[in-house]
Amino acid sequence: MKFRLLNQEERAAFDEDFKHFLITNGVSNEEWLEMNETKPQKAEELVAIFSDTVFQKVMEKMKFLELRAKDSLLVFNCSKDEIELIGIHPKSADAPVDLSTPESIHESLSQKAQELQFFKHKKGYSKERELEVFEMIENGCVPSHEAFWMALNKSIQ
Q1: Domain boundaries, the chain
Q2: Residue range 101-136, pLDDT digits in tens
């Protein structure tokens, strides 16, 4: 398995897609119900294949991620060949800034920019792009927007 199994909530969101997946793989609803009863390992293998397919497609579409905390903001541009990072953190530990919410980020950037330090970094992927993006999300990153990336990139130049 490349990623992980979709959890119950995630699977529910893809219920129709899963039904189409089963039909495409020649498994009727009755066969699926019977498989769950008599061959649970085979059923789990199908769920694993479906989960990998879903995660692969989602990760391929993921372009911008961010990781927020009170004392740091990391925004990533996940291009085809490399990850580019824009990082922001306070210049000192006692700086009165909060980078954990969109509102506090906006306030910090517009009213306390002199208290902030910006940095930028690029690196190639250490493993397959989609797997690395998946691991970043599993470790707390959330989807972000290109407009946010562009605004930050413009502000540090």
Answers
A1: 8-61, 64-155
A2: 888 888 888 888 888 999 999 999 999 999 999 999
